[in-house]
Amino acid sequence: MYQDILRDSEIYQLIMQEGIEKERLVQLEHQRRTILRIVQTKFPKLARLAIDQTNALTDPEKLEDLIVFMGLSQTEEEAHQYLTGTNRAKN
Hints:
Elements: H1 2-7, H2 10-42, H3 47-56, H4 60-72, H5 76-84
């Protein structure tokens, strides 16, 4: 019963939201690092672009898609298109 009262409190809800947001930021950072590791391994010339582009993304689904696209990219040009959003499959 006391737990229900606590869970319904505004401060508890704020703390929970803060925890959820912190976890989301950790997930985003992990996804960005994954993309950068792929790019550094396959297309090292695009590393700076990958950092800039992924830092601008805040949608976990878009970052997840970019991980797949970077892994599937066959050429530096193709990877560049995915990073800059000029490849149709990304849109």
